[in-house]
């Protein structure tokens, strides 16, 4: 019997993907950091990570510097 895998939603495009294919992040104070196992988190899909327009929107939503967010995601991909 095949075990089902968890499905999570991308915070940017709201599409659903298997959890292992998404990038998990959290907001720590005023910064976006990689999820470390504590606190609330959110997921981004690979398509949104590469889309410059969506990254700009996320940076605005979380009041972040767009270049800093792009660098963080570049290290996680």
Automatic annotation (TrEMBL):
Task: Report the SUPFAM superfamilies cross-referenced here.
Answer: YlxR-like
Question: Which superkingdom is the protein from?
Answer: Bacteria
Which organism does this record belong to?
A: Sulfurovum riftiae
Q: What is the lineage of its organism?
A: Bacteria, Pseudomonadati, Campylobacterota, Epsilonproteobacteria, Campylobacterales
Q: Pfam families, alphabetically? A: YlxR
Q: Which InterPro entries match?
A: YlxR-like_sf, YlxR_dom
Q: Where is the YlxR domain?
A: 8-66
Q: What is this protein called?
A: YlxR domain-containing protein
């Amino acid at each position: 019997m095949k075990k089902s895998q968890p499905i999570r939603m991308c915070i940017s495009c709201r599409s659903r993907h298997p959890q292992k294919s998404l990038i998990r992040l959290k907001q720590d104070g005023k910064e976006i950091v990689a999820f470390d196992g504590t606190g609330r988190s959110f997921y981004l899909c690979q398509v949104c990570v590469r889309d410059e327009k969506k990254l700009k929107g996320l940076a605005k939503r979380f009041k972040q510097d767009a270049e800093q967010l792009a660098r963080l995601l570049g290290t996680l991909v």
